[in-house]
Amino acid sequence: xxxxxxxxxxxxxxxxxxxxxxxxxxxxxxxxxxxxxxxxxxxxxxxxxxxxxxxxxxxxxxxxxxxxxxxxxxxxxxxxxxxxxxxxxxxxxxxxxxxxxxxxxxxxxxxxxxxxxxxxxxxxxxxxxxxxxxxxxxxxxxxxxxxxxxxxxxxxxxxxxxxxxxxxxxxxxxxxxxxxxxxxxxxxxxxxxxxxxxxxxxxxxxxxxxxxxxxxxxxxxxxxxxxxxxxxxxxxxxxxxxxxxxxxxxxxxxxxxxxxxxxxxxxxxxxxxxxxxxxxxxxxxxxxxxxxxxxxxxxxxxxxxxxxxxxxxxxxxxxxxxxxxxxxx
Length: 329
What we know:
This protein has two domains: about 5-105, Enolase-like, domain 1 (2-Layer Sandwich); about 120-320, TIM Barrel (Alpha-Beta Barrel), CATH 3.20.20. About 35% of the residues lie in helices and about 20% in strands. It contains 13 helices and 14 strands. Strand 9, helix 9 (about 235) and strand 10 form a beta-alpha-beta unit. It is globular, with a radius of gyration of 19 Å. The mean pLDDT is about 95.
């Protein structure tokens, strides 16, 4: 354990353009950055408070401040799991702790966790809800990307999917209704999605109201996002989902995320690695989970107007490895 000084800040990052999903539209993203200092070394972690999980910037900062003294006394990543619950607050501190430990020891995080060395990955780019015409125009811009994700609600579903697919015939496509569909929608749309060569359907039904998926035998793999936070959720997903989406803001950091991935794979789930709308500082630790993942959706920096200094380079959906100046080295 290492004694350290903890500071927490709230940052606002404007987006390139308004970003709409089924729950609303945003023009900026609010992030919390935890910084752990030890001598001349500073480790950082970024998290996004998410209203869907009853989080606000104030509540997340308050959670961290409430245990600040304990953290500054010296705490390991494993001990942190007992100090804070899963969520954005623990994520910010957990990632800051790993970054600080890597800099102090001179050993990258991936080596400390005995993970494969991170490499360039292919990430999805997300097209927010808009008219079919506008979504098709955006898809045309991304036609050479390897993977697209389409945000949808229940309005003009087929027209929007067709517009995107016609503009981008080659990429794999993920459809993400963000809990806005019904089981009847799935039954009606299954054959259509097969014809449109859709690769994945992400959280179509509301978490806690997805029991009908056990009896639905569709042809498109279904991914649990809002229904999967930590290892405690996995048993309830069996028979309903084939893929889980691991996001550090849900797991409460990298420590739990690594364990979630290992257990989920052992149980036969495929893996998606996702993110909230955030900067490269939040993407860097998530990239350590990418090896063996079937879908990677770490496009937060693409949606932000100006990313951080030393941010990840993303060219036509291909994301480079984080430098030590950013995180983890």
